[in-house]
Design goal:
By secondary structure, this protein is an alpha/beta fold. It has eleven helices and 16 strands. Helix 2 (about 20-30) crosses helix 4 and helix 4 (about 120-140) crosses helix 11.
Length: about 425
């Protein structure tokens, strides 16, 4: 009879003994370019496949679109529960490399920091999942359930060729999932706001600029009126459901007491955020513009749906008497969450406290991720990964080595608790 606590402690110790190998794996992942766009995951998927084969795993490649490869591997026994480890291999572009203090594909460790694009989002977290998966296979741990590793290529663009493609095609399934997306040290994200991204195109009538505003119909000035209406979404009253309010309250507490630089932004938890991200219109200064287009990113709290936002926008824009078109793109979802009492959440939250000897609780994410797709398929999910949050998607991205090791210890302990607790 296996003593679960003894096994868990032994595996945590094993991670500590092999932490240099863990960090080296994460470094190697950063050194492999995998920017999306363009989204070619051939090189990094090949590396991960070769790494896992060294311990004898059977890995399956699934090309969801040209040069975007999903890698799926499963270990354990089919009799018990099934846990999915999920991580994305793509990263956002490095941007202007002259603004970096080091090579974005450095992968170096300097003064306790692992450096490079993807260090926090999310190659360090992905490395922790891969390392945990490989170690359990190498040590021949007799798991009473299954553990699947799913490495996906298409998260950073909000694309459909990673997690949603695997789920839709029945290539992954499970009773719970952990995504190693960046989070704070003690607070995994167990919920997220919804997303409503849209393009608005406004049409006018061209004419000679010297006759404006008496001639023609200026699409840009009409767009200004439209933008003013769109921005009022922030002020739209939203009633948070009673069963969600405690999660919102905890998330605001987190913003006040943990990630303190976020304290001024607490209201994003129960308001619709509105970002006018791009604008394009007109031909030249002396021609009355015939069209103008904006791209808008709205994030939706609990208490309002995508359909309700769409209805609101059409009502307000119709009243302006303008000619327009709205089309959706990118992220699209309603707010969603997994109960903190779900076994997969408890396994992670309890083991964060166990490994760190510090209070842990789940919070809301004010952005969006692949977690929503798992919830669409009724798979409970949360996110927990090593990160230096201010550096995500910015220049000089980095993560603390100690955070990488800590998260990996939590991962392996959580596997034992989750699969052995039947």
């Amino acid at each position: 009879m296996i003593n679960k606590q003894t096994l868990k402690d032994q595996l945590i110790h094993e991670i500590e003994q092999r932490k240099d190998d863990l960090v080296d794996l994460c470094s190697q992942l950063i050194r492999i370019p995998s920017e999306n766009p363009p989204g070619d995951s051939t090189h990094i998927t090949t590396f991960i496949d070769d790494y896992l084969k060294q311990v004898g795993t059977v890995n399956h490649w699934y090309e969801s679109t040209d040069k975007m490869y999903n890698l799926v591997s499963t270990i354990g026994n089919t009799d018990g529960k099934h846990l999915i480890f999920c991580g994305h291999s793509d990263v956002v572009p490095a941007g202007d490399r002259s603004k970096w203090d080091f090579d974005p594909n450095s992968g170096e460790v300097v003064d306790g920091w692992l450096l490079g694009r993807g260090a926090s989002d999310m190659k360090a977290g992905l490395g922790g999942l891969i390392f945990t998966f490989a170690l359990l296979k190498e040590l021949e741990i007799d798991l009473p359930g299954q553990l699947t590793l799913a490495v996906v290529p298409d998260e950073e663009t909000g694309g459909e060729f990673g997690v949603p493609w695997l789920l839709e095609n029945g290539l992954i399934m499970g009773d719970g999932s952990l995504i190693a997306e960046p989070s704070s040290r003690y607070n995994p994200t167990i919920g997220q706001k919804g997303s409503f991204w849209f393009k608005l195109k406004v049409f006018g009538q061209p004419g000679h600029g010297s006759l404006s505003p008496l001639a023609g119909n200026n699409a840009i000035t009409s767009m200004i009126d439209a933008i003013n209406e769109i921005r009022k979404l922030w002020d739209l009253p939203v009633t948070i459901p009673d069963h969600i309010q405690p999660l919102i309250d905890k998330s605001k507490k987190y913003m006040r007491e943990v990630e303190k630089d976020r304290e001024p932004f607490q209201d994003v938890m129960d308001h619709i955020t509105v970002n006018i991200g791009t604008i394009n219109g007109g031909t030249k200064s002396n021609i009355i513009p015939e069209s103008c287009e904006v791209e808008v990113d709205c994030r939706l709290p609990f208490g309002i749906t995508q359909d309700e936002v769409s209805d609101y926008l059409h009502e307000k824009l119709d009243k302006l008497g303008i000619e327009y078109e709205i089309s959706r793109f990118g992220f699209r979802s309603n707010a969603n969450h997994t109960s903190a009492d779900d076994p997969v959440c408890k396994a992670i939250i309890d083991n964060i406290s166990y490994v760190t000897d510090h209070e842990s609780y789940g919070v809301m994410q004010w952005a969006s991720s692949d977690a929503r797709h798992f919830r669409d398929y009724n798979i409970p999910v949360l996110q927990y990964g090593p990160a230096f949050l201010p550096s995500i998607h910015g220049y000089n991205e980095k993560v603390k080595v100690e955070d990488i090791v800590r998260c990996c210890k939590v991962y392996i302990a959580a596997v034992i608790d989750y699969l052995y607790d039947n």
